């Protein structure tokens, strides 16, 4: 229960409709009602926020600032009501008004502030920081449009603008009294100061204006409210008016439009030079606004920078904010007059870097020419940082090879010189962490082994986690109430206590109720599928769900190959595949990732054939739910019997979907990749379905991998691939899936689909057999729920706080 009085809620609700909207209650729309409830809740958040900030200031606490280009926070009303402890009271009050809260929350739009796992992790971390009463704040961009809204037309992904009404969001507090001036473009002129020292001057810059907006983040039980600060880009009126006064009105307006484009859309396409530049400008805008805000607050209570790193921690969520290294150095050296060596020590001790990928193409590099144009002073500083670092290398190890120096240099030489943002982040941070044990090991041994050998003490692991408030209590209320009834409510704020459920593993009545909750969630998802896709699926079938970004390494294609195998086994061989299956996919492909889009088309085409074939007798159904996002995930995850986590071993950094599915009682089928390894250790090998090559086996296998060998030796696999090559699934568009066949059969096919096929088939067969034993399956499901306590983001944040940030809890 929260510590505040609920009596003012009704007054706030009624006043919003009457005095702010100027309406009578009976004329208020659903959206009006939603905003009125959100306004009433928001008043509580603001009051607690004031108390929280006062508590932090009085204790002069060290604060964590989490810089991320994405925050996929999802709908906020339901989560805030639960965290404040007023959900049931709000529901009862609204019932007196004839309003169904469960229907009302469906009116809220997902904030378009992120894409996938990176942004969802950031959102869970903010939730946990507030839950643990720690001074931690998010910094991002207030995008008008998200990545894109996915629609499916004849099986093909089409992209539409993903707009959320941020200008009218009741959760977004506009800090109109604050703004930050961000210089950009221009040139650097060399000069000397009065002591004869080199004194570069950044001149002829343009100005951007960063306007902060806050979304308040409530901790569990309402003791702490932190915030996510988002910056909106505006044009500088002073700069534009000069152009206007010169008589070029259209140029002045064009400059304003160009400036405001910066916060218009998440991840503009970087396939062309103009898109690359805009994306870099976004990253710089985030870093510049964030550091100005952080330093302004620090200087309110501190007059020197001697203790900056003792009061400020900054975490770089992947390489997108890596320019923070150069920007912090610029501020300390150019604006604060601090000597280079001192400024560099402050920078390193302040910054930490989280790596999220092992994919070379996902490690950001920027052409030097673009950086010199956009942020010329920063490029100059990067050269200086790199020169000093390379000198340090040669002094530390006179025998270091040229090859090692080339790999560790921030500047990648070549026809087009590039700046390696990962190298910049590593050199400028005191901590570099991966997000699952195997991923962190691979960062040290495969991604940047030279840096690990240089600074082994800087490298560490922080396995990801997810918020149990959002991903059990809010999205699966039936299960949450059932758990609370069994072991009390403390698990919501301390997921480690959920192990107490295991005492019921031999209670048939308890397991039956668990099965009933799962069935109710499956029925709800079946209703959604019928509504969205006009497809009837059987809730009594196995719901096998593959919901994540569409990418070759995540191997939705392996899943499809298996589905085709099952289909042909029934159709041509008359085999009994065991229990009926419903295969459910959801996920977006990047707009320029044409092969991933072809996989989406293949899924739909296979579904179209199988779902209409009377010979299958509904033993298999295939569904693709479009526009995967937080709100849809909250419907999908509680309904899963089987969670597909089948990436090629060594390719997935961690995953968080695997955790969400497991803690909602789904059984994982997966490779020993990312956090699957740690999930298997926690739940026990007998309660998870592991298949396929290991990380070491993949590395040993790749150099001599010949898919044709598997094709020739496995008649089932050959039949499936021939079916894909033929027009069986594309009679209206002959030959469109031949590229899929060619990709899978190409020598050195990187993701080893065919090598893992037979192991995957055998493991899926075991799933079908095990599911028939209902008591055994429910016992396995219960153990997944009860043994996933370590995958709470609260545990992850406590490890970051203790091992990297040096922050602690300040409870009200």
From TrEMBL:
Belongs to the glycogen phosphorylase family. The lineage of its organism: Bacteria, Pseudomonadati, Thermodesulfobacteriota, Desulfobacteria, Desulfobacterales. One of its GO terms (cellular component) is cytoplasm. GO terms for molecular function: glycogen phosphorylase activity; pyridoxal phosphate binding. Its EC number is 2.4.1.1. This is Alpha-1,4 glucan phosphorylase. The keyword Glycosyltransferase applies. The modification N6-(pyridoxal phosphate)lysine is found at residue 660. It comes from the Bacteria. It catalyses: [(1->4)-alpha-D-glucosyl](n) + phosphate = [(1->4)-alpha-D-glucosyl](n-1) + alpha-D-glucose 1-phosphate. Keywords: Carbohydrate metabolism, Glycogen metabolism, Glycosyltransferase, Phosphoprotein, Pyridoxal phosphate, Transferase. Signal peptide: none annotated. The keyword Transferase applies. Its cofactor is pyridoxal 5'-phosphate. One of its GO terms (biological process) is glycogen catabolic process. InterPro entries: Glycg_phsphrylas (IPR011833), Glyco_trans_35 (IPR000811), Pyridoxal_P_attach_site (IPR035090). Phosphorylase is an important allosteric enzyme in carbohydrate metabolism. Enzymes from different sources differ in their regulatory mechanisms and in their natural substrates. However, all known phosphorylases share catalytic and structural properties. Allosteric enzyme that catalyzes the rate-limiting step in glycogen catabolism, the phosphorolytic cleavage of glycogen to produce glucose-1-phosphate, and plays a central role in maintaining cellular and organismal glucose homeostasis.
């Amino acid at each position: 229960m929260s510590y505040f009085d609920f009596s003012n809620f009704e007054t706030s609700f009624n006043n919003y409709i009457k005095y702010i909207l100027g309406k009578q209650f009976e004329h208020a729309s659903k959206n009006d009602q939603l905003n009125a409830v959100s306004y009433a809740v928001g008043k509580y958040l603001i009051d607690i926020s004031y108390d929280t900030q006062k508590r932090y200031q009085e204790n002069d606490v060290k604060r964590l600032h989490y810089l991320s280009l994405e925050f996929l926070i999802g709908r906020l009303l339901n989560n805030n009501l639960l965290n404040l402890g007023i959900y049931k009271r709000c529901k009862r009050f609204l019932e007196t008004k004839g309003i169904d809260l469960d229907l009302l929350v469906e009116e809220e739009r997902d904030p378009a502030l992120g894409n996938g796992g990176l942004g969802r992790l950031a959102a869970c971390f903010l939730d946990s920081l507030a839950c643990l009463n720690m001074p931690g704040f998010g910094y991002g961009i207030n995008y008008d449009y998200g990545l894109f809204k996915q629609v499916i037309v004849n099986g093909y992904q089409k992209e539409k603008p993903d707009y959320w009404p941020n200008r009218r969001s009741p959760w977004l507090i506009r800090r109109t009294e604050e703004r930050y001036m961000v210089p950009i473009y221009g040139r650097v002129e060399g000069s000397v100061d009065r002591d004869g020292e080199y004194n570069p001057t950044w001149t002829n810059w343009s100005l951007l204006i960063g306007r902060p907006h806050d979304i308040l983040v409530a901790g569990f039980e309402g003791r702490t409210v932190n915030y996510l600060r988002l910056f909106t880009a505006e044009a500088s009126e002073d700069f534009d008016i000069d152009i206007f006064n010169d008589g070029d009105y259209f140029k002045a307006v064009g400059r304003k439009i160009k400036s405001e484009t910066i916060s218009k859309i998440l991840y503009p396409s970087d396939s062309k030079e103009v898109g690359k530049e805009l994306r870099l400008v976004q990253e710089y805008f985030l870093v510049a606004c964030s550091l100005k805000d952080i330093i302004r607050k620090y200087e309110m209570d501190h007059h020197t920078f001697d203790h900056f790193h003792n009061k400020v921690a900054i975490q770089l969520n992947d390489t997108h904010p890596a320019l923070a290294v150069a920007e912090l150095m610029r501020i300390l050296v150019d604006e604060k007059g601090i000597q280079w060596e001192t400024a560099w020590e402050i920078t390193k001790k302040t910054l930490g870097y989280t790596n999220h990928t092992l994919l070379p193409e996902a490690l950001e590099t920027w052409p030097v020419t673009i950086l010199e144009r956009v942020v010329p002073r920063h490029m100059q500083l990067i050269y200086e940082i790199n020169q000093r670092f390379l000198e340090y290398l040669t002094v530390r190890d006179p025998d270091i090879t040229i090859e090692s120096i080339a790999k560790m240099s921030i500047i990648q030489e070549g026809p087009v010189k590039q700046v390696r943002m990962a190298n910049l982040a590593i050199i400028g941070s005191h901590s570099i962490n991966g997000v699952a044990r195997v991923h962190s090991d691979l960062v040290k041994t495969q991604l940047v082994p030279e840096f690990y050998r240089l600074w082994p003490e800087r490298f560490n692991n922080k396995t990801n986690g997810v918020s149990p408030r959002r991903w059990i209590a809010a999205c699966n209320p039936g299960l949450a109430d059932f758990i609370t009834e069994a072991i009390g409510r403390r698990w919501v704020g301390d997921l480690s206590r959920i192990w107490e459920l295991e005492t019921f593993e031999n209670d048939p009545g308890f397991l039956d109720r668990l099965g009933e909750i799962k069935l109710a969630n499956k029925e709800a998802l079946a209703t959604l599928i019928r509504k969205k896709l006009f497809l009837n699926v059987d809730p009594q079938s196995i719901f096998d769900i593959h919901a994540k970004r569409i990418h070759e390494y995540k191997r939705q294609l392996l899943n499809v190959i298996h589905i085709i195998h099952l289909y042909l086994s029934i159709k041509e061989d008359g085999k009994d595949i065991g229990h009926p299956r419903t295969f459910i996919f959801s996920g977006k492909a990047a707009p320029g990732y044409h092969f991933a889009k072809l996989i989406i088309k293949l899924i739909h085409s296979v579904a179209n054939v199988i779902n209409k074939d009377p010979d299958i007798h509904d033993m298999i159904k295939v569904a693709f739910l479009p526009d995967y996002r937080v709100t849809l995930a909250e419907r999908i995850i509680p309904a899963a019997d089987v969670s597909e986590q089948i990436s090629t071993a060594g390719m997935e950094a961690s995953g968080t979907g695997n955790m969400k599915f497991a803690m909602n009682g789904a059984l994982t089928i997966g490779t020993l990749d990312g956090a699957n390894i740690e999930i298997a250790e926690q739940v026990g090998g007998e309660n998870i379905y592991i298949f396929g090559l290991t990380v070491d086996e993949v590395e040993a296998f790749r150099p001599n991998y010949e898919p044709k060998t598997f094709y020739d030796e496995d008649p089932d696999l050959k039949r499936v691939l021939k079916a894909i090559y033929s027009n069986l699934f594309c009679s209206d568009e002959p030959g469109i899936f031949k590229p899929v066949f060619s990709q899978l059969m190409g020598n050195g096919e990187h993701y080893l689909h065919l090598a893992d096929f037979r192991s995957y088939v055998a493991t899926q067969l075991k799933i079908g057999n095990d599911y028939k034993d209902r008591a055994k399956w429910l016992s396995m499901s219960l153990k997944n729920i009860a043994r996933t306590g370590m995958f709470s983001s609260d545990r992850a944040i406590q490890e970051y706080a203790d091992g990297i940030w040096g922050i602690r809890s300040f409870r009200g």
